[in-house]
Design a protein that fits this description.
By secondary structure, the chain is mainly alpha-helical. It folds into 3 domains: 92 residues, Orthogonal Bundle (Fumarase C, Chain B, domain 1), CATH 1.10.275; 227 residues, Fumarase C, Chain A, domain 2 (Up-down Bundle); 59 residues, Ribonucleotide Reductase Protein R1, domain 1 (Orthogonal Bundle). It contains 21 helices and 6 strands. The strands form 3 sheets. It has a two-stranded antiparallel ribbon with strand order 1-2. The chain is elongated, with a radius of gyration of 30 Å. Bound molecules: arginine. The site of arginine (ARG) has 10 residues, from helix 7.
């Protein structure tokens, strides 16, 4: 007979290599806290409905808390022979307290148990990710304020397009992160549903009280279909999807950071403490953090793809394929949290080369739209004004100068609508100041964005913030 906890119907023990292949303990042990507190809630429920005696329940709860302390202290021997975190803990409990331990698994399967653990784990980690998002958002607001008068070219097609405020650029990322925060809010809500009580797949013959379990663990809802409760991993796919979008945002910021600190752009200088050198080329200072975040984006998106593929062909209900949900989500959680934390530090240490950025808007034609807009305000149709401005650019390029170098006479030769005020109208500062439409790059509008951002950061505490206090 097999020694395994499920060994009754087996006449052989599991092959050693097969055992190692199918075990998940090496990675699912990180859910021990969830597993223990899920089991405590289950035991208390079993006692409440009369399936466990109060004495057995107390022994189980005390035994589980003692195991938690041991694991916390790094003083617990995990065994591959016991497959996973659920059986490692249950077996140790039974060794410690005897028969009462053997009663814990009444009306429960590892299928609903693992689903419970991962729901709890995702909920907790979602809050952690949100905290890191807020930290990076704060760093962006601080930088936008610190460099509130810095001009730079805004780009389309990576060609200089129109002058903008550097703060406007940073606040664009703040806004993306605000939506990421909201997406994780949704992830939390969908993970906030309690699967325990589904049993292996069909429910249980025992008179369990699922609402009581949910209340102890602060779950908002309970799965209403036992097959669904043990089969789906959509809450994991959703976390990975929100994480992937977030990483794509960070990856774009990384790409820009990398460009900005090239000798060619030279817009920013990263802190020496945040870069590394080359083993061969003494002059090098490399933006490794940004490159790694850009690279790790591929990994997180890969985990999303992997999870979608794992689930896509599975018949209901539980299949062991679902054990493949863990390594990817754990790695994604670590990667996202680390990337956010590191990026906040990078932004806080970054110095801006204000003069270089300014030169990129003055020694350039990114004020050509403003020249056209000037004529439109004097009554010329925009299409015509576009052509006049284009001509001015053409002539300047031929003469080796910029629009601001043109004399009033040269302007008037192109259109009699030009007056002496054209000089001021095409100064980069004026171009920026005048883009005062809601959401535009004007000083006022960027200031409004910064104020709104600060209010959001101070008040942005919705579901997760409330839930924070309720985490088990
Ligand atoms: N380690 C398993 C997992 O992660 C737990 C559930 C096992 N259930 C089973 N019927 N073998 O999915």
């Amino acid at each position: 007979m097999s020694e395994a906890m499920w060994g009754g119907r087996f006449s052989k023990t599991t092959d050693e290599m097969i055992n190692e292949f199918q075990a998940s303990i090496n990675f699912d042990k990180r859910m021990y806290h969830e597993d223990i507190h899920g089991s405590i809630a289950h035991a208390r429920m079993l006692a409440k409905v009369g399936i466990l005696t109060a004495a057995d329940c107390d022994a189980i709860v005390d035994g589980l808390l003692a195991i938690e302390k041991k694991i916390d202290a790094g003083d617990f021997d995990f065994s591959v022979d016991l497959e996973d975190i659920h059986m490692n803990i249950e077996k140790r409990l039974t060794e410690a307290i005897g028969d009462a331990g053997g009663r814990l698994h009444t009306a429960r399967s590892r299928n609903d148990q693992v689903a419970l653990d991962t729901h709890m784990y995702i909920r907790r980690q979602t809050i952690e990710v949100q905290k890191e998002i807020e930290n990076l958002q704060s760093a962006l607001v601080e930088a936008a304020e610190k460099y509130s008068d810095v001009l730079m070219p805004g780009y389309t097609h990576l060609q200089r397009a129109q002058p903008i405020l550097f703060g406007h650029h940073l606040m664009a990322y703040f806004a993306m992160l605000a939506r990421d925060f909201e997406r994780f809010e949704g992830v939390y809500r969908r993970a906030d549903i309690m699967p325990l009580g589904a049993g292996a797949l069909a429910g249980t013959t025992f008179p369990i009280d699922r609402k009581y379990v949910a209340a102890q663990l602060n779950f908002e809802r309970i799965y209403g279909n036992s097959l669904d409760a043990v089969s789906d991993r959509d809450y994991i796919m959703e976390f990975l999807s929100a994480a992937s979008i977030l990483m794509v945002h960070l990856s774009r910021l990384s790409e820009e950071t990398i460009l900005w600190c090239t000798r060619e752009f030279h817009f920013v200088e990263l802190d020496d403490a945040h870069c590394t050198g080359s083993s061969m080329m003494p002059q090098k200072k490399n933006p490794d953090v940004s490159e790694l975040v850009r690279g790790k984006t591929g990994r997180v998106v890969g985990h999303l793809m992997a999870m979608l593929m794992v689930v896509k062909g599975l018949p209901l209900a539980y299949n062991k394929d679902l054990q493949e949900d863990k390594e990817g989500i754990f790695d994604a959680i670590d990667t996202v949290k680390f990337s956010l934390a590191v990026y906040a530090q990078l932004i806080r240490g970054m110095k801006v080369n204000k003069d270089v950025m300014k030169r990129a808007v003055t020694e350039d034609f990114s004020n050509a739209t403003d020249l056209a807009d000037y004529l439109v305000k004097k009554g010329m149709p925009f299409r015509k004004a576009h052509a006049v401005s284009g001509r001015a650019v053409h002539d300047c390029i031929a003469a080796g100068k910029y629009l601001e170098d043109m004399t009033l006479g040269e302007f008037q030769a192109l259109s009699p609508l030009f007056g002496a005020d054209i000089k001021d109208a095409i100064r980069p500062e004026t171009c920026v100041k005048n883009r005062n439409s809601y959401g535009g790059t004007s000083y006022k509008e960027v200031e409004r964005q910064i104020q709104a951002a600060k209010e959001l950061l101070a008040s942005e505490k919705t579901v997760s913030e409330e839930a924070k206090g309720k985490q088990v």
